[in-house]
Structures are given as C-alpha cells and as structure tokens.
Amino acid sequence: MTKLTGNMTKVYKENQGVRKGRDKGQYTLYHIFCPKKHRGIHQGYIGVSQLSLDGVRKRYEYEVIEAMSENHVRKVRHVHKMMSRFGWDIKSLASGLTKEKAYELEAALRPVWNTNAKDIYNWNIKKGG
After folding, report:
1. Are 77 and 40 within 8 A, CB to CB?
2. Which of 66, 82, 92, 94 could form a disulfide with 74 if both were Cys (CB 3.0 to 4.6 A apart)?
C-alpha cells in the first residue's frame, strides 16, 4: 500500500456523514466536469457518494494521482483519464438524499451511456457513480 492509498482511509473517516440509529446515511449527487470544455450537465460525469463534496473532491484528487502514476496503484478508469487530460471541477447537484432517491436522480440526470468511450465529453461509461 502506498502512502496515497493510505490517505484514502483518512478521507473517508473525515468526510463521511455520521449514521444515527436506523439512518443509512445521507448521499450527495455530484457532477464532475471540465470548466472550459463541457457545456452542461449532459457532459462530464454524474456520481453518487456518501462523502461530503469536499470528501469527493479529495477522493478524486487521490484517485487521479494514483491511477495515472507509473506504478498504477489504482485501476485506471475512463473518468480518471479524462480528468487527467482535460482538468476538472466538481459541483454538488443535491445533498442529504436517501440512497434510493440519490440513485433515482442519478439515473435521470446521467447522460446516455458512453459506449466504448467514443465521446470524449461524456465521461459516463456505465450506471452508478
């Protein structure tokens, strides 16, 4: 395990919402995009996480570094390649959602699946964030 991968545990511990009783936690719906290239929510990447927006940002910062490293500590995903190539920013679309509602909104907002990664502006390969 590298130092960066070890930092992911810290990100999750510090940025994940606290569960109370039967509460399954709250989810955030987010959009990762390239500010100078993407022209709307139909481009970029739509995702769901239990992390706060700051936590999601930190998670992707670590993931991109690890995926693009010489040793490939992390599995390289299409979104990592695109973030590394074009740069990126992130914004929250909704927060405080239940798991069911978050995935329902994600399915409604997600652009059409980018089959075989042919469209460089659509970073979604499959459902789920």
Report:
1. no
2. 66
